[in-house]
Write a structure and sequence with these properties.
- The structure is a single chain.
- The protein is an alpha+beta fold.
- The chain has two domains: 264 residues, no CATH class; 130 residues, Conserved hypothetical protein from pyrococcus furiosus pfu- 392566-001, domain 2.
- Helices cover 31% and strands 23% of the residues.
- It is globular, with a radius of gyration of 22 Å.
Length: 432
């Protein structure tokens, strides 16, 4: 099952690390254009290798940083403990998402024997970008996020002990406090390896980066007649957190529809009336509260106007996609079928690559874009439960793309993981 390894991280040198918050950057799929330009102005910010302006520049940057000692490789392999302290709007509670970063063998998630299960689809152009970055730099520039299962919380005592001596402790762009430490004790590391070896990991975030690693592995394996499965290209950098923890938060991702030919709000609502109960709302800002906890309910934003739509229960049997019932019953499946395919005419098979569909996690941004006319309308969704994610994974099917937003996002820049053979191989045999 899941095969994990300690590794020797590449990290910024001691002098630069003193201001690690100036070197960290958001992941490629959440960094805004404005953020990018600001971060690019710092020649040593991690964005230069995580979201490079071009691939050739990224490769040269990695080589230059190594040669000049901008980043150095840790001498002793370890598992890197990573805690994220955060809060959510409207709540006084402080959450602590606890996890650790290691290498994990990349296995084909289309196989029933895969060690890693995906829960949503990917978009091809984003996967290609990630393959290019990995192939050129031979570097995992940011860990993906996976979920393991430990109801006894047996690893937490070792992570808490490690956190008494943090490497970094800073606040990031999200207002999240990110703390990193490392475990070098091989006997303790073996406990982490043993905990994962009989499990399947659920990929929470980073589907494009993981698929990029998987496809790169397949390319390299095809070129290597002496492939053993232990080569560096078989492995992928992952941040693993306990799915049993109460500090795992999933936020909704809304849909923006734009560029629709001859779009007319009244025609859309008329088409939806066959399947949905429609209720105009007095205030668009009330959408989230009004749909909260209501099955198959969505908010539609049209500029300064908003309506609540909720599927008529008897209409669920009209959902024609060939999915198991556990997938058909999901809010997001209902939305993609009844609103986007049936009412708008964008077939399910075309939705992953449709230029008319984009994604936005911030409600205020959705509202602004509809008011300014940047988009035709927005579909406001609810969050999905961890239980639904588990059920879909184990059904062998996937959620629609961009279905979950595990908050907070992991940041780039605290460490990097090399898959160059001489940098990946452990300096001595420790049984991994």
């Amino acid at each position: 099952m899941a095969r994990i390894k300690p590794f020797r991280a590449w990290r910024y040198n001691r002098d630069l690390s003193a201001n690690i918050e100036d070197l960290a950057s958001p992941l490629f799929d959440v960094v805004s254009k404005k953020q990018r330009e600001a971060l690019y102005s710092n020649p040593y910010n991690s964005i230069h290798i995580s979201v490079p302006k071009n691939i050739e520049t990224q490769k040269r940057t990695v080589e230059e940083w190594k040669a000049k000692g901008i980043i150095n490789q840790d001498q002793i392999p370890g598992i890197y403990v990573y805690y994220q302290h955060f809060s959510l709007p409207g709540s006084k509670r402080t959450y602590i998402r606890k996890g650790f970063i290691c290498f994990i063998e990349a296995t084909d998630w289309n196989s029933v024997d895969s060690d890693v299960l995906r829960h949503e689809n990917t978009m091809p152009h984003s996967v290609n970008d990630r393959i290019d970055i990995l192939a050129q730099s031979q570097m995992n520039v940011s860990p993906t996020h996976g979920l393991y299962f430990d109801p006894e919380f047996s690893l937490e005592q070792y992570m808490d002990e490690s956190m008494k001596n943090p490497i970094y402790d800073r606040e990031d762009y999200q207002g999240v406090r990110d703390v990193l430490s490392v475990i070098h004790d091989f006997e303790v590391i073996k406990k982490f390896v043993a905990k994962l070896k009989d499990q399947q990991v659920i990929l929470a975030d980073g589907h494009h980066r993981y698929e990029g690693s998987l496809l790169y592995k397949q390319q390299m394996q095809a070129q290597n007649p002496n492939h053993t499965g232990n080569e560096a290209y078989n492995f992928h950098l992952m941040y693993l957190t306990n799915a049993e923890a109460d500090d795992l938060r999933i936020l909704p991702t809304h849909r923006l529809l734009s560029g629709l030919k001859n779009f007319n709000k009244e025609e859309l609502l008329h088409k939806l009336s066959e399947d949905f109960i429609i209720k105009p709302l007095d205030n668009p800002n009330d959408v989230n509260e009004i749909i909260l906890g209501k099955k198959w309910a969505f908010g539609l934003l049209f500029g300064k106007e908003a309506v609540k739509v909720r599927l008529k229960p008897e209409r669920i049997t009209e959902l024609k996609w060939n999915f198991p019932q556990v997938v058909k019953d999901l809010d997001l499946t209902v939305m993609h079928y009844f609103i986007i395919e049936k009412a708008l005419g964008i077939l399910g098979k075309d939705q992953r690559s449709s230029e008319h569909i984009s994604f936005e996690r911030n409600f205020s941004n959705c509202l602004e874009k509809t008011i300014t006319g940047e988009v035709d309308f927005a579909i406001i969704t609810q969050d999905i439960s961890m239980e639904d994610v588990k059920n879909v994974c184990h059904s062998g099917y996937t959620l629609p793309q961009k279905s979950t937003y595990f908050y907070p996002k992991v940041i780039s820049g605290y460490l990097f993981g090399s898959i160059k053979e001489d940098e990946f191989t452990l300096p001595f045999d420790i049984g991994f």
